Structures are given as C-alpha cells and as structure tokens.
Amino acid sequence: MGVSSIRRGQAAMMADRRVRLSRAGSAHPHRADANRNAVGEKHARITSRTRRRGLAGLPFPSGDVMDLKSGYPFWAIRNGLMHAFPRLQRDLDCEIAVIGGGISGALIADELAAHGHEVAVLEQRDIAWGSTAASTALLQYEIDTHLIELSQRFGERNAALAYCACAAAVERLGEVAAELRDVDFRRQRSLYYASRSSHLPPLREEAALRARHGLALRWLEADELAADYGLRAPGAMLSECAAAVDPYRMTSRLLARLRRRGGQVCDRTCVEHLQAKSRGVELRTADGMRVRAGHVVVAAGYAGQRWIDQPLARNRSSYAFVTDPLHEDELQALRATMVWESARPYLYLRSTGDGRLVVGGCDDAVDLPARRDRRVQSRANRLVRQVQQRFERLHLQPAFAWAGTFAETADGLPWFGAHAQYGPRVLFAMAYGGNGITYSMIGAGLLRARIERRAHPLARLFSFERSPR
C-alpha cells in the first residue's frame, strides 16, 4: 500500500517541482542551469577527498558536493524556490564570511548581522537545499544523550547547563520565528515514552534529575498515555518546552532578511581554497573570486567533517515520511505534542501547521547515497508499521518520503569554535545530533561571543578541546 502511494506522490511532486523551477528559471534566466543541477543533485557522488596543507592554505575539492538526501523532502516540495540569490561574481571584502546557507549558517549570520557585524554567506548549492531540506525540525531542549549520562561524562553542572541552554534556545527560536512570520513555527509538548518496561527505572531517574534543575515536566502512566494519546507504552515524560518549524522556509526568510539589511548572500558559490593568516582569512571560489574576511565561520553541516583531520562524528542515514492532512479526530492530542521513544534508534512523530504528521526513524549506518536511495520506500513502510504498533487508531499513508544524512558525536554534543588546524580566525559550527537547530541557535551566540572576544558559559563544553572527566 505505501510503496505505490509514495511513487504516485513522488511523481506528482517532481512534476510540480519542475513547474516551480521552470517558472523561477524564466524569471531569472541566469539560474536555469543551477536549478537543473539542484533537481538532479541526489545523483551527485563524492569523487575525491579533501587534501590538507595546514594553516598556510586549504584546497577544497572543486565541485565535490556531498550527497545529503534521498527521495523528495517535503519542505522543498511545499515551498518551491522561495528566493533567488546571485552567484558571487566579483571579489569581496567583509568582516565575517559564513560558509554554508542552511539553517545553521542562516541563524549564525542573522545573529551576527543583528549585532552590527558585516556578514557574507556563501552556499555551494541553492539556499537551504542541503541537509536543511531533509530535516524534520523537532525543536527540543532534550539532548539525545540523557542528562544522567551527560552528568557522568562532564559533571552535573556542565550537563545541566547544556540542557538549560537548549531550553532557552527553543524560546529564542520562537522569538526569531515571530519576527520572520509565516515559517510554521508552533509551540509543542514533547512526550518521551519508555519503549519497554525495563526502560522505566532509568527514565524515572532521568525525570527526577531534570526536575531538580528546573526543567518542567510530569510523568504519565500507561493508562494516561492510552487515554490521552492512544499510545501503548509503559510510561513517559511530558515536557512543555518544545516546538516545530519549517526549516527550509525559516532559512530562506532569514537570509532574505539578511540581504535586505545589507548583508551578502550568494548561492551556487563553492569555496575551493581557504588560507588563514594572522590578521584575516582569504577564500577563493571555484569561479576564481576572492573573499577576504576578518573571520570565517564554517557552517557547512555534515560535510564540514571532511575539512578537519580528526574523527568528529559518525554519519548515518535517517528516514522520514509525511502524510496528507489528517482530520482533527485522527490527530487529537498529537496536533500539539511531538512524540519520541527511549529505544535507539528511536521512532518520532510531529505534526505540521496544516495537520499532517511527519514520522521519522529507522536510522542506519548506511552513508552510501545509492543504497540510501533504494531504502526510502521500504523504510517508510516500516515506519508505518511501527506507528501502528504504538497507536492502534492511526492508519497512516505516506504522501512523500525521504532520507537524509545526519551525524552523531560520541557524547551527543555539538562542536563550536576554533580548531587547532586553522587557528583562531576560522570558526566551525557543527550542530550535530538530534536537535541540531536548537544547537545552532546556541552556537550563534557562542560564536558571536568568540568573535567579540567575550566569554561564553558553553565555550569549553562545546569546543574541540572538551574531554570527559
């Protein structure tokens, strides 16, 4: 049942996508080739490895665009090509260059520009067309690594600081969304359920520790979960601090605002070479343009790992689908509550503003695009079965299905800041993990503090120098 519906949905989407891109191309003829490349990007393959030459200069492989997604991510389907940004066609001087035009780069650039910094954003694809387009955009304070485990690794004070910073970041994301408007930002509850009875004792301990640090939640027993959510599970934590957003739309609106405020935004601009010096950084693009900046922020998402000679994370694939809009009687409490589980990898659900359900999970270690492509439909069908086992009243039909690359660090924390390989003027933003958008909001303030030579409470914990106690 699911396979045929996905194929029909994908065929209809591709027709719609071609119409949208054709219209965008006719309005902006210089974008026609780039639009064709964007549609066919999932067929790109990594063909070479980045070479390293230390601080003197970093050559990046020209045209080496990392294939980050499979299938047809819903956000790009629904929104089409929202804004046209030019390719960089002249040399440029700026205070801060941000490499990466996804949600991380957009939040960081917005934070810097809002506080008086001159910013230029350079993106090798179309804006938001990398992993941002495949994100399911659950905004949570809850880190994939439990507070208890994080406390054992880095001390309870540091662990609680990270969790509370994530809670504050969800609130801050709401403020940014309110300024932008029309990005499908909605406050949610977060229901984290025990996948099996053996998970109940550690989950109760986790709930108690979170409550001790001021993170508001309540415990629901099995009968309450069945009555309130139609969920079959032995127990769960219900938190009030969560939200959902359209990440593709938010990124496009952030960067359009940046451009209106005088910032530079250039897509289809591939940085091929980086040279860090004592007083600044020089970039060279594949088209031969030079960019001179006081600082560079590398917010290139999961592809950023290839630029550092140190193992930082494991790349994995995650799978998702979205339904057609559901009736209120079907959604019920799920309209205002996202749901996820204690098993790893975990199943998760969240609603959209127009009443659809986004379902994700079935993560695997596959990082080969061709193999990931082939698994999209079978994984969507598996997700349907997993939902049915937990929610007997839900009979979901995937409308669109996709998969995307994501990265996991060993401790569940992100990397923000300078790396010894490049010196203090090249800063990295690697918001890896299950709540990458929340991390990116924290990282925006952290990197601004670093550029402004101010202290930040999470600078050490989120740095490349962190180590377990």
TrEMBL record:
Gene Ontology molecular function terms on file: oxidoreductase activity
A Pfam family: DAO
Region of interest (Disordered), residue spans: 21-50
Basic and acidic residues: compositionally biased ranges: 30-44
Name of the protein this chain belongs to: Putative oxidoreductase/FAD-dependent
Claim: Electron transport is one of the keywords in the record: no
Assigned GO CC terms: cytoplasm
Listed Gene3D superfamilies: D-Amino Acid Oxidase, subunit A, domain 2 (3.30.9.10), FAD/NAD(P)-binding domain (3.50.50.60)
All residue ranges annotated as the FAD dependent oxidoreductase domain in the record: 96-447
Domain of life: Bacteria
Keywords (A to Z) from UniProt: Oxidoreductase
